[in-house]
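note to self — DONT lose this again. spent like an hour looking for the file last time. sequence + predicted structure for the chain T wanted, 442 res
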Amino acid sequence: MSAIALILKNQGFCVEGSDMQESATTKVLRENGINVYIGHDESHIHGDEIVIYTAAISKDNPELVAAKKMNLKIYERAEFLGFLMKDFKNVIAIAGTHGKTTTTSMIGYILEKANYNPTILVGAFVKQLGGNFVIGSKDYLVVEACEYVDSFLKFNPTIGVILNIDNDHLDYFKNVDSIKESFKKFAMKIPSSGFIVVNCDDKNVKDVISKLHTKVICISTKEKADIFADNIICNDGYYEFNVKNNNNEVLAHIKLNIPGFHNVYNALAAFAVASKLGVEAFIIEHALSEFCGASRRLEKVGEFDGIYLYDDYAHHPTEIKATLATLKNISKGKVIAIFQPHTFSRLKTLLNDFAESLKLADKVIVTDVYAAREKNVFGITSEKLYFKLKEIGVDCEYISNFEDIACYVVKEAKKGDIVATIGAGDINKCIDVILKKAPIKS
């Protein structure tokens, strides 16, 4: 949303908006001359605006209700983005249940390094891009494509990526088959003149692409494919590998600067897109070796007394598993996971899976659910997850507020341990509280 606001401001429009709370993003918007209200109120709608809203807000949001009463032009974020896309020659849309932000950032960064002057919209702050968006030329637009409420079906991509397909957003989708159907419709939006890069190691993705008429480029870490990783080596959680084509030729050697095996797939997808667009392999290789990741994606955010603090946006069991497996590889001590479930519906439908994924940590601290767009009509609480973890033998605590979590961490964590805040809500704020309570070195 903030990227759209800044793009429109850059094009000369008068832009204002609202958010639930102050943040680094609201500060940036104000610095760019955009008025931001804190809280949502019908008085913010004056009657002469075009209103763009995110699918994350409720249907009874007072500003949305007021805009409808005034018969204003109203667009959901994805729909409006779809209009913006029509101005671009190449629209690269990155889809998948996991990894969209990192892969979008990787592709954007590679194209910047290759002097393609891309416009980039990404769902997190990326230090190497200078924010969550880059305004470039209208030749290349690199953008995340989210499946929630079928948002990406409003896009007009010319090039697509599908990283994986997993069971998520079950407050909207009925089951994994309906999720696959949505991804299939997304894939079918890619014109025959374009191409789509897909992860052929993912069974759900393979099902989706079985009858496509556009050019499909397969990536893999397990077998020969159009673009695949070979001779994969792990050093303390960081991976390097050869990139090969289906003729078994070595195209590049990638040494990643961000940890986690899942990033091998993200890098392969980025390599496939960039090389197909004509970027030379050595430029891609160099860009990926420099790439430091996006904010809140396995981000090292601080340390005290030899204890390392990480923050990760993982909010699905598959993501949590990948995050904790990576941290276990990096850690010289224990991994203490502070988990904030994101939405009641997701916690209810995936409760057992959350428990299974979290047991990879040496210690789990569960805190209250971040409700986001929901009210708790699901009869679920974080305490149920705590009891489930206890039931399967996980060393865990339930602590409801950040102050008490910080006190616990400062008291219990030892030198060499990793403390990780995990979740898509505001759990990252807990890091600041921990650092404030941490002993000051003399």
